[in-house]
Amino acid sequence: MRPSFNHHFKHILFSTNDTLQCFTRFTKITVLSFLFFFAATSNGWGQIALRGTTTATKDSTNMTRFIINKPSGVLAGDVMIASFVQNETDNDNGGMVNVSLSGWTLIDGRTIRQEGTNNGDNLWRGTVLYRVANGTEGANFTFSTSTRADMIIGSIVAFSGVDVSGGVQADGTAGGPFDLDPGTLNVTNAITSTASAITSASSNSAIIMLSLVNNNRTFSDWIATSPSTFTEIYENLTESADDGSIGAAWNTKAVAGSTGTGSVTLSSSDHSGAILLALRVAPAPAPGSTITTTFTSNGTFTVPSCVSSITVEAWGAGGAGGGVTEDIRAGGGGEGGSYVSGTLSVTAGATCNITVGTGGAGGTGNGGNGGFSRFEIGTTTHFNAIGGAGGAAGTNSNNFGAGGNSTNSGNIVSGSSQVTFYGGNGGTATNTNFATSGGGGGSAGQGGNGGAGGALTSGTAGSNGGVAGAIGRGSSDDGDGNNGGIPGAGGSGARNANNNDDYDGGNGGNGLVRVTYTLPNNPTITLTNTTATACSSASAQNVTLAYSTTTGCPNQYSIDFNSGITDVTDAILSGSSITIELPANLAAGTYTGNLTVKNSTYGFVSNTYSISITVNPLPTANAGADQTGAATCGLTSVTLAGNTPTVGTGAWSIVSGTGGTVTTASSATSTFTGTAGSTYTLRWTVSNSPCTASTDDVVITFNRNPTTANAGADQTGAATCGLTSVTLAGNTPTVGTGAWSIVSGTGGT
Predict the structure, then answer these.
(1) Which of 17, 335, 342, 487 is deepest in the core (most CB within 10 A)?
(2) Of 545, 531, 533, nearest in space to 617 by CA
(3) Cα(first)–Cα(last) distance of the chain, in Å?
(4) 423 within 8 A of 443, measured Cβ to Cβ
(5) CB neighbours (10 Å) of residue 221?
(6) Contact at 8 Å (CB) between 272 and 112?
């Protein structure tokens, strides 16, 4: 079931050449460009944009009405601000009143200049009105003027992206589009037109300055304190005998507060009235919001970031009613437009072409057929809603035209949840009450076909979205047929039973295309590890946190560290890991922080994820002094003297030498046993992963005691008589070496 469009939707509306990422250009006198919706900022939500402007002038004695076109592309929810200057050349009739029109609300109106109250004295009055568009407006507005106005000049400017109910109304009461009570026109007589300062209550409000002048003056240098400058929207002036001019400029005020006095320089000194207005920006949609984009004319739709499914609804345009030539004739009603809808899988960034059917045009002949409404991606048509057929005219050959009636075929629908219905036939005119025109057929809706029109009666609306056809004309009701409503209602036939005038059939209602999609929820990330480890370093280094999946299309991450490590703000999230830079010479310890990820397109941010970074000190190994001296003589085991690690663990290994054994390899002071007479090199390794291990070597020599010396028997007897030399009889050492020395006596060798 299609959700109600009256609840939990943020409506974004577009018209000709609007896209989700578009530039629209207005030319008046000044050319402006603006970026709407996804602008080239961190996110494009919550921005007021200039929609369009239109101007008109009129010179006529004692006029009572003034017609000005609606700005191009104005859609439901836009705010229109109209400003006028009226002139009366004979101010002896009691003055002038404000321009007015039902549906428009007065912001302020007052006399700009009054020459006097005698015949021939001039009076100029300025008026400022506003209206929130609701989509039912016609192509123009007919305003009521002062009954004695001889000249009027007027302009309308429209803005999108306004919070039309969250601010205040023109009288300061709640429920309007203004950020604060608009106040009044400030009337001056100088070369500078000045507006009293206002104080905005919220950020990103649109500040608009209007100046209404009693002469044909041009405008330059629109300024205030905040914002400091304005971009001119229009300057509209007339150079008739009864001159007047109006100008407007605007800018966005990023921070709430006083604007200071607004001013604009006129081309020459004169009387003027100026006012500053502040429009409140519409709030950005919440994560998971459903957005409906409504197209009332041709355009393109770019599938937003992180959107993979859209629902498309399309209504074909209604057919026009038949016209009449001469009397006792009536035209048939136009057929209503059809309806299609479905849910389509799409790719973010895809460009979709939108065609909105134009209602059949009524004239004195047969009514025009309504155009189709279509949704295409590339060259593929995914949705097509046909328009209704026009009603036949009342002519010489057939005084009473038949209602529009086409074959119910031609709708195209794609995707899932497909719906297709057709509009009701137009009513056929009859000779009842001399002539009764046919009513328009109702347009189809999401819940059914449109109803058929009858003689005079309109066809009923197709349920859930259709519109009833236009009512026909009957007894004593000569005239043009009535126009069909939007979307897709058939126009009614014209009727003439009393004169020879020709009458046009009513136009068919234009079609409509709606695209609905759901924004992503706040993003999430699944971290493979929430901790990372590094070693102390004299150079900067990086650590990474791996992640496996994300939701909500995050493309940036931020980390708020408690201390020691520089915070990370909106870094690019790519690949499958998050990189964190550690500064050089970061002290050993554990550093904690909070990680968030963000979808920068919408500004949606995740919950926080706690992370920690541990920086380990580098290990240090000391195997102790070599043990190679006399202390090891006769030994086959020693106690090693490695350092006890303050970080990490130690282990002994034998680098060289055979037959040795370390009793407890992990003990810094383990016993080492070897073979007497052997030399060993042992290595003490202190490890603290992932840091590089530290090593130190020690040499151990087990020295043997020498063989006990035996010098042999004393040679002191008769055997040495007469000898001057003898053979010594010392023992041969098995360990060590022997050496003789003369302890006493002289002359011996």
Answers:
(1) 335
(2) 533
(3) 128
(4) yes
(5) 12
(6) yes
What is the rounded distance in angstroms from the CA atom of residue 47 to the CA atom of residue 591? 39
Using alpha carbons, select from 425, 467, 464, 472 the residue that is nearest to residue 446.
464
Residue 93, phi-psi category: left (phi > 0), alpha (psi -120 to 50), beta (remainder):
alpha
The amino acid that residue 650 corresponds to is: G
Is residue 156 within 8 Å of residue 80, measured between CB atoms?
yes
Cβ pair 618, 536 in contact under 8 A: yes
| Token pair belonging to 730 | 């010392």
Q: How many CB atoms are closer than 10 A to CB 6?
A: 6
CA distance 158 to 211: 17
pLDDT exceeds cutoff 70 at 21: no
Q: Give the number of other Cβ atoms within 10 Å of residue 393's Cβ.
A: 33
pLDDT value at residue 707: 85
Output DSSP code: residue 394.
B
Burial (CB < 10 A; 0-12, 13-18, 19+), residue 563, is: exposed
Continuous segment of H or E residues that includes residue 341: strand 339-345
Under DSSP, is residue 338 helix (H, G, I), strand (E, B) or coil? coil
Which pair of tokens denotes residue 625?
């002094």
Strands 244-253 and 231-238: antiparallel
Output the six-digit token pair for 629. 């001296």
Q: What are phi and psi of 29, to 5 degrees?
A: -130, -45
| Residue 647: both structure tokens together | 């970080």
Q: Out of 92-106, 176-190, 561-575, which region has the weakest mean confidence (pLDDT)? A: 92-106
Q: How many residues does the chain have?
A: 749
Two structure tokens written together for 651: 């282990």
Q: Tens digit of pLDDT for each residue in 172-207?
A: 999 999 999 998 999 999 999 999 999 999 999 999
| DSSP code of residue 629 | S
Angle at 173 between CA 167 and CA 177, to 5 degrees: 25
The CA R_g of the chain, rounded to the nearest whole Å, is 47
**CB 320 within 8 Å of CB 334:** yes
Exposure string over 300-330, b if 16+ CB within 10 A, otherwise e: bbbbbbbbeebbbbbbbbbbbbbbbbbbebb
Q: What is the pLDDT of residues 331-343, one digit of tens each?
A: 999 999 999 999 9
Burial of 287 (0-12, 13-18, 19+ CB in 10 A): middle
- Could you give the angle at the alpha carbon of 254 between the alpha carbons of 252 and 259, nearest 5°? 70
Residue range 561-585: mean pLDDT, rounded: 94
Report CA torsion sign: 395, 398, 399, 401: negative
d(CA 732, CA 710): 9
Q: Is 128 helix (H, G, I), strand (E, B) or coil?
A: strand
Report yes or no: 520 and 306 within 8 Å, Cβ to Cβ.
Answer: yes
Question: Position of tokens 């302009």?
Answer: 155
Is the previous residue joined to 227 through a cis bond, with omega within 30 degrees of 0? yes
Largest CA distance in the chain: 185
Local structure of residue 665 (DSSP, 8 states): T
How much is the average pLDDT of 336-360? 97
